[in-house]
């Protein structure tokens, strides 16, 4: 009988294989995926192996998410920046066709971006005993560390550890954050909040709504940060860093390093999102698709496991899911239900309804929005 998860797929053909036991061994170690990588595995444990996995991607020159220069939003004159109207049209086109775009000249200093990534590395690469103090599956906590939020519900585990931080709404004590990255997390999140408000204005104007529309209905009120760490993987062709999924947010702001591996599913193919130094990736979440009645699309995306890592990323989700009991009900925006498109596609729900359902099914390759269609 195999007794350690490190022995992984030695049990692949044994009739006595106990998946739940293997999952619990990983969970109880509180060392995450990095603990396995540090043990020097040469083969993946079976719980990480994705059946029939195809990690090939298309690299067509004309098939890449738009890069939008926000420079002229901050300055009256811009040599290479578009006018506000042109920016709004580009955002509209990206949200309708891709659900993804990258922004440059967003006014968050490059030094802040670099230090944020360094802070995430410092946290994940510290001594295991220090990290274990934060390890938890109690999602009511404002700050906690774990591996795979859907470890026990998803079909396969992903090669990733995550620091979870519910920074807003409500009063938040920064001292809950790990001291190794506390200051930069607060500085970065404050910058992201400002950028988010600007982006919500652009999205509103792209839909013909007043600029403050999304702010007024509290889409920018909540901020949930996931600081991901993807260690080097011994067999990256057999697993994923993050399975194909859709975000539950209204809007997501993603900071990634230069390792690469992020892909978006577009026109029935996986496309690489090549890192642009200093850029931030913006994507539409399920809640935005719901309230815009499919005018803006939430697109499926995934992360490949790195052969040479680590890969580090920071996803900031604009969604107000904390504290419990204060959730606002959202449905398709009435102003967008025109004569040509008069029928609401989705029923009214709270953000928590969507998150709870997503958590119950895990990252299983199926859009949680399907569950809320009328």
TrEMBL record:
PROSITE patterns per record: FE2OG_OXY (PS51471)
Ranges for domain Fe2OG dioxygenase: 219-321
Keywords assigned by UniProt, alphabetized: Iron, Metal-binding, Oxidoreductase
Pfam families in alphabetical order: 2OG-FeII_Oxy, DIOX_N
PANTHER family reported for this sequence: 1-AMINOCYCLOPROPANE-1-CARBOXYLATE OXIDASE HOMOLOG 1-LIKE (PTHR10209:SF884), OXIDOREDUCTASE, 2OG-FE II OXYGENASE FAMILY PROTEIN (PTHR10209)
Entry similarity comment: Belongs to the iron/ascorbate-dependent oxidoreductase family.
Entry protein name: Fe2OG dioxygenase domain-containing protein
């Amino acid at each position: 009988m195999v007794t350690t998860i490190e022995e992984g797929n030695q049990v692949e053909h044994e009739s006595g294989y106990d998946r739940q036991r293997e999952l619990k061994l990983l969970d109880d170690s509180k060392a995450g995926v990095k603990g396995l990588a540090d043990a020097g595995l040469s083969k993946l444990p079976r719980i990480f192996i994705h059946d029939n996995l195809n990690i090939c991607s298309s690299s067509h020159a004309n098939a890449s998410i738009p890069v939008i220069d926000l420079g002229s939003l901050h300055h009256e004159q811009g040599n290479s920046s578009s006018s506000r109207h042109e920016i709004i049209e580009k955002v509209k086109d990206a949200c309708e066709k891709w659900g993804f775009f990258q922004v440059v000249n967003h006014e968050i200093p490059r030094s802040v971006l670099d230090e944020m990534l360094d802070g995430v590395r410092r946290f994940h690469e510290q001594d295991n005993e220090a990290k274990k103090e934060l390890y938890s599956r109690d999602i009511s906590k404002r700050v906690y560390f774990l591996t795979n939020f859907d470890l026990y519900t998803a079909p396969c585990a992903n090669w990733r550890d995550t620091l979870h931080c519910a920074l807003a709404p409500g009063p938040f004590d920064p001292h809950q954050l790990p001291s190794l990255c506390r200051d930069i997390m607060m500085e970065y999140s404050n910058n992201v909040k400002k950028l988010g408000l600007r982006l919500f204005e652009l999205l509103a104007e792209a839909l013909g709504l007043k600029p403050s529309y999304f702010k007024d209905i509290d889409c920018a009120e909540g901020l949930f940060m996931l600081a991901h760490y993807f260690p080097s993987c011994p067999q990256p062709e057999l697993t994923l860093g993050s399975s194909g999924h859709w975000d539950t947010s209204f809007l997501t702001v993603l900071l990634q390093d230069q390792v690469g591996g992020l892909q978006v599913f577009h026109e029935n193919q996986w496309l690489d999102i090549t890192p642009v130094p200093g850029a931030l990736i913006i994507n539409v979440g399920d809640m935005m698709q719901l309230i815009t009645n499919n005018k803006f699309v939430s697109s499926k995306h995934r992360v490949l496991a790195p052969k040479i890592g680590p890969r580090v990323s920071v996803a900031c989700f604009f969604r107000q899911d904390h504290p419990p009991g204060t959730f606002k009900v959202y449905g398709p925006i009435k102003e967008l239900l025109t004569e040509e498109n008069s029928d609401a596609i989705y029923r009214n729900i709270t953000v928590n309804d969507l998150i709870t359902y997503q958590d119950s099914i895990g990252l299983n390759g199926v859009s949680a929005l399907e569950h809320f269609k009328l």
